[in-house]
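Quick one:
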Amino acid sequence: MFASRNFPQTSLWAFPFFSVDPWKERNNYKSAQNAKAKEIYVLKQLEESVIQEVDFQIRLLRTTWETIPMRRQQTAYEEAALQADNKSSPREKHQLQRASKSLPISRRRRSDEIGTLRDYNQAISELNFRIGTTLERWRIDRPVRPNK
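Output:
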């Protein structure tokens, strides 16, 4: 190179430092992909769990709904039998009361009917909780978060 005499020749060397380790970058990429796949798998498992819970609650709700008329019929039948039994002999009354254990039959049947209605209402509430509509069912507005 040509250098002038007035200005001494100086050279300045700069070597940029680049990480030229393709294996490290490749491993980081694979690790990130594996972490992503694992999170997706966990999310899918959670989604499947929620679907199973909702399905179970729907089946429970149907079952309790179907038992309500049956309980009402049992109560009506027992009350009719009790009224018919009032016309029976004292010995038959004693046998009937002994078979009913502690509570009279009509009270026990009414208690069963009320318990079935309670179970049905609990199943409705649990289903609304599982599908996330409890607030809408009760017409409750969700609080709005203030913007930061």
